[in-house]
Amino acid sequence: MSRDISPVVTASATATTSPPTTLRRRWMRFTRHFLLMLAAMYLGMLTLYPAYDFLAGRAGYADATNELPIPSALGMAVAMTLPMAALMFHHRHGWRPVMEMAAAMTLPTLSATLLHLTGTITADAVISVGHTAMIPAMLAAMLLRFDHYAGPKAAQSVSNVGCLGRSATGPQEFWSKRQRSERHPPGR
Fold first, then answer.
1. What are the start-end ranges of the E strands in 71-145?
2. Cβ contacts of residue 29 below 8 Å, gap of 6+?
3. Which residues contact 141 (CB under 8 A, 6 or more apart)?
């Protein structure tokens, strides 16, 4: 008498996940992301901040950094944060990591502003102190989410899930799906 043995399908960890990533490769990804964020920040500093400086000059301030230390420091922080956030959204990071990184970049500037308001630092030091603390704060935010910044792209998309399980990227996801379907239409 033969028994009917149907094949049992079991999923092993190696069959359902990608091959393990070496620690060196993860640090390389982490470092690459960090350097890309620095490049985006400095691009914003070199392109957007001069627009603020120009507008302040048109308003009658010859040296906006010293005459308007608080708006200048906040303007610099915004000029550096916007391109960094845009690049993170382009790389499909979710709202949470982008907001954490934006906070890591603006909180040092706000702290420097408070130090200036209390008379601890001079007006010309507000931007310098904010910048000096900005990069370590950004690095600390990244180290707290090391798996996110060092992991494979699939791990990064976990944070893109918004409420009700829908993607928080919205139109970006729609267009990427549409482009994939145009490259590989069904029926081919």
1. none
2. 149, 150, 151
3. 100, 101, 103, 104
Give me the phi and psi of 21, to 5 degrees please.
Answer: -95, 135
Task: Give the other-Cβ count within 10 Å of 15's Cβ.
Answer: 7
For the chain, the straight-line distance linking the first and the last C-alpha, in angstroms and rounded, comes to: 47
Cα distance between residue 85 and residue 179, in whole Å: 24
pTM: 0.66
- Tallying the residues shown for the chain, one arrives at 188
- Residue 114: name the closest of 77, 73, 78 by CA: 73
Structure confidence by residue, pLDDT tens digits, 59-88: 999 888 888 889 999 999 999 999 999 999
Q: Which run of H or E residues covers position 93?
A: none
Q: What are phi and psi of 161, to 5 degrees?
A: -80, 125
